[in-house]
């Protein structure tokens, strides 16, 4: 019984923390206000979580796990958020065929975990981790797809940074405004954005010519 009450109190803290983070952002979020919203003392709150970083991790970990499963399922386990890649082996033509599914899956995840996804996308440290992962993936795919074959290493790196940053910023922006879009609108916006993003590239890898 005591364990059940403890879990219920923990859930209450997390719900209060979500509202606090979405309203004030990470820097301005207050453990004192979270404790008040959860109807407990600040000292008792710190028995559950040592600080805002632990709260952020507890809130966003389920969304990160779901996002990783989404990516792995979509790419037949060729891409994961949890491991670096030296080779992916994902043709651009195959990825283009999956943009509709990617848009639908991301939309469904945003419906299931709206607060968690917004915090995940908007929190600076977490967004930097995701954008860093996107950059490393972009570098691998750009080489496999021979996107910038005539450019030197410095130019190649700069182009990968620009494209990965624009992709992440676009998705981040739509999630920051997701409350203004219904499910169908969000899915349509994501699908169009992914299609337009991929349309900028002309594959040079054998077997990817369209």
UniProtKB/TrEMBL annotation:
Signal peptide: none annotated. Residues 30-49 bind DNA. Keywords: DNA-binding, Transcription, Transcription regulation. One of its GO terms (molecular function) is transcription cis-regulatory region binding. This is TetR family transcriptional regulator. It comes from Holdemania massiliensis. The keyword Disulfide bond does not apply. It comes from the Bacteria.
């Amino acid at each position: 019984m005591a364990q059940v009450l403890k879990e219920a109190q923990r859930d209450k803290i997390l719900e209060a923390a979500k509202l606090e983070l979405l309203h004030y952002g990470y820097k301005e979020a207050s453990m004192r206000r979270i404790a008040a919203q959860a109807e407990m003392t600040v000292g008792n709150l710190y028995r559950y979580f040592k600080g805002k970083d632990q709260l952020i991790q507890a809130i966003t970990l389920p969304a990160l796990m779901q996002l990783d499963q989404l990516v792995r399922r979509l790419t037949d386990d060729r891409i994961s958020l949890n491991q670096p890649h030296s080779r992916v082996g994902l043709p651009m033509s195959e990825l283009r065929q999956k943009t509709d599914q990617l848009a639908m899956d991301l939309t469904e995840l945003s419906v299931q975990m709206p607060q968690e996804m917004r915090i995940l996308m908007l929190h600076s440290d977490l967004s930097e981790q995701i954008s860093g992962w996107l950059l490393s993936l972009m570098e691998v795919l750009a080489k496999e797809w021979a996107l910038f074959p005539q450019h030197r290493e410095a130019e190649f790196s700069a182009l990968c940074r620009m494209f990965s940053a624009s992709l992440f910023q676009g998705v981040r922006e739509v999630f920051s405004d997701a409350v203004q879009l219904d499910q169908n609108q969000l899915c349509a916006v994501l699908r169009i954005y992914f299609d337009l993003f991929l349309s900028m590239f002309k594959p040079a890898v054998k077997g990817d010519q369209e």
